[in-house]
């Protein structure tokens, strides 16, 4: 039995991870910490609520975090907490650096003080920056960081801070940089649920002008399994990429969603690209495969089918969230 703190646990991936962990390790004590920003939905944890401890709080609040770490004897911290919407970062960069960079640094301090046994940090493929559409070499864990948006830069800075706390202070850290996640409970502002929920409401779907830009897709459950593999067998101080090698352009995603719902392709509206929009990211995942034997298990076709069905059957979950995002896609202007 061990105690594990999951930050950002009311968000998309954090809630899946908390659920995955209590179901797989029922003897462990999961403490879920979340600031419940517009993107945090406590209801995401409803089915496991009686098996976890939920704390409403900010990772940047060192006093609160210190108390939680001590009170629950936390051994492992998995940091999912972040401002995660790239488009919002164009409008309000400060809140991204506040949480993603400074919040992570405050959390690192608290973890160092509490002498946690492992600090695992969740990062993204986007820290590496733009990749050409015809590039044949995927990003390895040694690739230089070249973030081009405030979200990516704030996540890159956090990654550097995590590694610095390991090198300088000996904090036992691991990191994972993951590709684009999809699955149930993803906030309707993100591209796949945006396309699904708009289609379900009979609305048109906004496709960026650079519609050939591609993303690598992974089911959220495969991501959770990868984090588990790193917590169980990963080398301290090491970074592991988590991806599938399966890429789709934004236009292909739109067509697949419309096809799944039996709708015509003329439902697409082309909108201007987001500033700093990267063409592509692709991760080389040889390390996690070779060292830890992790492999993605969920085929995209099946995962997408189930995800579209989940949104169709859970309107009561996403309808109240629909207008909560501060961003209107296709109308990005800074005030
Ligand atoms: P999300 O926006 O759905 O969830 C983030 C959660 O963090 C929310 O519940 C929010 O309330 C909480 N939060 C925000 N600021 C906080 C703070 N200061 N203190 C405590 N909690 C706070 O995001 P997500 O898609 O689940 O992403 C989770 C993590 O995974 C992020 O670190 C993100 O960068 C990373 N990631 C996401 C993807 C993806 O495709 N979604 C891919 C790679 C990496």
Task: Spell out which ligands are present.
Answer: nicotinamide-adenine-dinucleotide
Helical proportion, percent range: 25-40%
CATH topology name of the largest domain: Rossmann fold
* Total strand segments: 12
Biggest sheet layout: 7 strands, parallel
Distance between the termini: 50 Å
CATH architecture of the largest domain: 3-Layer(aba) Sandwich
What is the beta-strand fraction? 15-25%
> What class, by secondary structure content?
alpha/beta
Total helical elements: 11
The CATH H-level superfamily of the largest domain is NAD(P)-binding Rossmann-like Domain
The poorly predicted ranges are: none
Neighbour order of strands in the largest sheet: 3-2-1-4-5-6-10
Offer a quick outline of the entry.
The protein has 11 helices and 12 strands. It has 335 residues and is an alpha/beta fold.
Task: Describe what this molecule looks like in 3D.
With 335 residues, the protein is an alpha/beta fold. The chain has two domains: 202 residues, 3-Layer(aba) Sandwich (Rossmann fold), CATH 3.40.50; 85 residues, UDP-galactose 4-epimerase, domain 1. Helices cover 39% and strands 17% of the residues. It contains eleven helices and twelve strands. It has a seven-stranded parallel sheet with strand order 3-2-1-4-5-6-10, sandwiched between helices. The chain has a three-stranded mixed sheet with strand order 7-9-11. Helix 5 links the parallel strand 5 and strand 6. Helix 6 packs parallel to helix 8. The longest helix is centred in the first third of the chain and has 22 residues. The model has no long low-confidence stretch (mean pLDDT 96). Bound molecules: nicotinamide-adenine-dinucleotide (NAD).
């Amino acid at each position: 039995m061990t105690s594990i703190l999951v930050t950002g646990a009311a968000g998309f991936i954090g809630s899946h991870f908390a659920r995955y962990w209590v179901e797989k390790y029922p003897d462990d004590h999961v403490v879920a910490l979340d600031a419940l920003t517009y993107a945090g939905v406590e209801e995401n944890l409803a089915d496991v609520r009686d098996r976890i401890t939920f704390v409403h709080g900010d990772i940047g609040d060192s006093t609160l975090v210190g108390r939680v770490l001590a009170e629950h004897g936390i051994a492992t911290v998995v940091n999912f907490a972040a401002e995660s919407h790239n488009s919002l970062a164009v409008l309000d960069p400060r809140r991204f650096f506040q949480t993603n960079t400074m919040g992570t640094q405050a959390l690192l301090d608290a973890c160092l003080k509490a002498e946690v046994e492992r600090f695992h940090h969740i990062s993204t493929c986007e820290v590496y920056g733009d990749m050409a559409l015809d590039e044949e070499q995927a990003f390895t864990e040694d690739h230089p960081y070249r973030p081009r948006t405030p979200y990516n830069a704030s996540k890159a800075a956090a990654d550097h801070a995590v590694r610095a706390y390991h090198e300088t202070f000996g904090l036992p850290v691991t990191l994972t940089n993951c590709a684009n996640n999809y699955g149930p409970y993803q906030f309707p502002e993100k591209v796949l649920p945006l396309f699904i929920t708009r289609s379900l409401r009979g609305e048109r779907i906004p496709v960026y002008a650079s519609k050939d830009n591609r993303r690598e897709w992974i089911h959220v459950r495969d991501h959770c399994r990868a984090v588990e593999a790193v917590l169980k067998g990963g080398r301290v101080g090491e970074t592991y990429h988590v991806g599938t090698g399966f890429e789709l352009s934004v236009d292909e995603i739109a067509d697949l969603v419309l096809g799944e719902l039996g709708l015509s392709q003329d439902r697409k509206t082309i909108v201007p690209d987001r500033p700093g929009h990267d063409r592509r990211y692709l991760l080389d995942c040889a390390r996690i495969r070779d060292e830890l034997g992790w492999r993605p298990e969920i085929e995209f076709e099946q995962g997408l089918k189930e995800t579209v069905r989940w949104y169709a059957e859970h309107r009561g979950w996403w309808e109240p969230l629909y207008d909560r995002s501060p961003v209107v896609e296709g109308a990005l202007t800074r005030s």
